[in-house]
From TrEMBL:
Gene coding for it: cobB
Chief place where the protein resides: cytoplasm
Binding-site list for NAD(+): A27, T31, F38, R39, Q106, I108, D109, H124, T193, S194, N216
Role: NAD-dependent protein deacetylase which modulates the activities of several enzymes which are inactive in their acetylated form.
Secretion signal, residue range per the UniProt entry: none
Domain Deacetylase sirtuin-type span(s) in chain numbering: 1-241
Family: Belongs to the sirtuin family. Class U subfamily.
SUPFAM superfamilies recorded: DHS-like NAD/FAD-binding domain (SSF52467)
Protein name (Swiss-Prot/TrEMBL): NAD-dependent protein deacetylase
InterPro entries, per database record: DHS-like_NAD/FAD-binding_dom, NAD-dep_sirtuin_deacylases, Sirtuin, Sirtuin_cat_small_dom_sf, Sirtuin_class_U, Ssirtuin_cat_dom
Annotated residues for binding of Zn(2+): C132, C135, C153, C155
Species of origin: Butyribacter intestini
Cofactor(s), names only, from the UniProt record: Zn(2+)
E.C. number: 2.3.1.286
Length: 241
C-alpha cells in the first residue's frame, strides 16, 4: 500500500522539527536488504527442519545439541553480502545531522552500523560478535562461517554467538540505555516490527511524547496508540526524506 501524501508530508514536517528522534526497528527494516523476516510467509518460521526454529534458537538446545544448532545457524542466520538499504542509510544521515539520537533494534545483522550509525542499541545482540564461553576470547563472524561443526576456541571452549537466544535475558545496560533514549525522545519512529516480541516491544511504554510514528505493512497491537500510522514499506517512507 502506498503511503498517503498528506501523511508523508506530516512525517517529514515532524522529522524537520524534531531534534531527539529515536528509531525502534524490527525485522522489516532488513527485509529490503534480502534478510528474511522470521514470521513472514518466506520467513524462518515457515521452513522445515528436524526441529522448529524457535527450538533450535533456544539456550537449552544450544547447550544440548550445539552441532545441530550451528548447522541451522550457519545456513539461516548468517546472511552473506547483505548491504544496508535506504532506511539504514537515511537513519545514519539523520544521526549525522544531529536529529536522531539513537536506534533501538531487534535485529542482529549489524546493518545499521554498516550504514554508518554510531548509537545503536542491539536488544538481541549481533551475529558479528562471537565469544568463547570458557575464556571469553572474541571471534568475528568469518571465523564462524569458515569453521566446521561446533567452533572451538584455542582453549578448547565452545564459541557462542553474541545473540540473545530464547530462554536468555536481555542485556541490562542495553535495556537501560534504550529506555533512557526512548524516554527522552521528542519523536519515536517504530518501523518494521509486529510488536509481538517481549520484552522488546514493552520498551515503547517509556515514550510519553505525541509524535509516535508507526510504519509497518501489517497491523500491530499498538496501531491505535500511534499519532501517525503508515501501513507501507519503510523504503517508501524513508526514500522521501
Amino acid at each position: 500500500m502506498q503511503p498517503d501524501k498528506k501523511d508523508l508530508e506530516l512525517f517529514k514536517k515532524w522529522v524537520s522539527e524534531s531534534s531527539h528522534i529515536v528509531f525502534f526497528g524490527g525485522a522489516g527494516v532488513s527485509t529490503e536488504s534480502g534478510i528474511p523476516d522470521f514470521r513472514s510467509v518466506d520467513g524462518l518460521y515457515h521452513q522445515k527442519y528436524d526441529y522448529p526454529p524457535e527450538t533450535i534458537l533456544s539456550h537449552s538446545f544450544f547447550i544440548r545439541n550445539p552441532k545441530e544448532f550451528y548447522k541451522f545457524y550457519r545456513d539461516k542466520m548468517l546472511i552473506e553480502n547483505a548491504k544496508p538499504n535506504i532506511t539504514h542509510l537515511k537513519l545514519a544521515e539523520l544521526e549525522k545531522s544531529g536529529k536522531l539520537s539513537a536506534i533501538v533494534t531487534q535485529n542482529i545483522d549489524g546493518l545499521h552500523q554498516a550504514a554508518g550509525s554510531k548509537t545503536v542499541y542491539e536488544l538481541h545482540g549481533s551475529t558479528l560478535r562471537n565469544y568463547c564461553e570458557k575464556c571469553h576470547k572474541f571471534y568475528d563472524v568469518n571465523y564462524i562461517k569458515n569453521s566446521q561443526g561446533v567452533p572451538l576456541c584455542d582453549c578448547g571452549g565452545i564459541i557462542k554467538p553474541d545473540v540473545v537466544l530464547y530462554e536468555e535475558g536481555l542485556d541490562d545496560s542495553t535495556i537501560s540505555n534504550s529506555i533512557k533514549a526512548i524516554a527522552n525522545a521528542d519523536m519515536l519512529i517504530v518501523g518494521g516490527t509486529s510488536l509481538a516480541v517481549y520484552p522488546a516491544a514493552g520498551l515503547l511504554q517509556y515514550y510519553t511524547g505525541n509524535r509516535l510514528v508507526l510504519i509497518n505493512k501489517s497491523s500491530t497491537p499498538l496501531d491505535n496508540n500511534a499519532d501517525l500510522l503508515l501501513q507501507c514499506g519503510l523504503g517508501e517512507v524513508f526514500s522521501q526524506i
